[in-house]
Design goal:
Order of helices and strands: HHEHEEHEEEEEEEEEEH
Distance between the termini: 93 Å
Largest sheet: 7 strands, antiparallel
Number of strands: 13
Oligomer: single chain
Radius of gyration: 29 Å
Helix content: 10-25%
Structural class: alpha+beta
Length: about 270
């Protein structure tokens, strides 16, 4: 009986050891299957070097525009304004804000949106800590691109890349002045490539947050090239919901070169 008990104990012990060894092998296998946290070096998990290089070429734009009320001849009469309940202050010129970027530092050429500077009485461009008056050279309402000229002093330029090479999934950075809070950087990817309803230039769709005030700023790829000019957002309440649209850089290049009569320096497409 004692011999039988010893035999059974030996078998049970052997099974227990085998089970422990198997469990240990499973743990070791699980550990080896885990992705190392050092797979991507921490010094690569940032766009700070890119932003530091391109941000000086991005500008803020302030536009003095006539009040919509002032364009109504009836509302110029104080009696009609009183009758309609329109205060006198409503006729005062208004200031709107947008963004832009330098595409030719030697000539002082700045790109922005047509709708940012439309009907402008005066345009001021903020570059770093200084502000200069801008000359309106022209615009193309169909592509929503406008061209300004500022004094060519200590400017940095942002090259226009080849938007035709842009693909869905590419990482991009948007820089601008949303809600006039100051220069702001947001990041995302190219979410889609959309054709315009009238068969014109396609739009680049991005989920990089774009808000009012970002209009006219650049959409930048990881090479540091502007592949688009941020132009519009699709949102139920006028705020960002992750659907922003940018005019492709190829269309912007054509408009600028036509208006300014120059050949722009470029990025990978030149």
């Amino acid at each position: 009986m004692l011999a039988a008990i010893g035999l059974v104990s030996g078998v049970a012990g052997g099974v227990g050891v085998a089970w422990l060894n198997s469990d240990r092998d499973m743990v070791i296998g699980a550990e080896s299957a885990q992705v190392s946290v050092d797979a991507v070096p921490l010094n690569r998990l940032t766009v700070a070097p890119l932003v530091e290089r391109v941000a000086p070429a991005v500008v803020n734009i302030a536009v003095l525009q006539a009040s919509p009320y002032a364009q109504n001849p009836l509302l110029r009469d104080p009696y009609y304004r009183f009758f309609l309940g329109v205060p006198d202050e409503a006729l005062a010129p208004r200031i709107s804000a947008g963004s832009g970027f330098v595409v030719d530092a030697a000539r002082g050429l700045v790109v922005t949106n047509h709708h940012v500077v439309e009907n402008a009485r005066a345009i001021a461009v903020g570059i770093g800590d200084r502000q200069v008056e801008a000359e309106f050279l022209g615009s193309d309402p169909r592509s929503d691109i406008a061209v300004l000229r500022i004094p060519a002093r200590r400017l940095k330029q942002l090259p226009l890349g080849d938007s035709d090479k842009t693909q869905v999934g590419d990482y991009v950075v948007a820089i601008g002045n949303p809600f006039e809070v100051g220069q702001t950087v947001t990041a995302g990817i190219v979410s889609g490539l959309r054709g315009s309803p009238d068969g014109g230039a396609r739009y680049i769709q991005t989920d990089a947050p774009i808000n009012p005030g970002n209009s006219g700023g650049p959409l930048i790829n990881m090479r540091g090239e502007a592949v688009g000019v941020n132009s519009a957002i699709i949102g139920p309440n006028g705020g960002n919901v992750g659907i922003g649209l940018a005019v492709p850089s190829r269309a912007a290049r054509q408009v600028v070169e036509h208006i300014a009569g120059v050949s722009l320096p470029g990025g990978s497409e030149s």
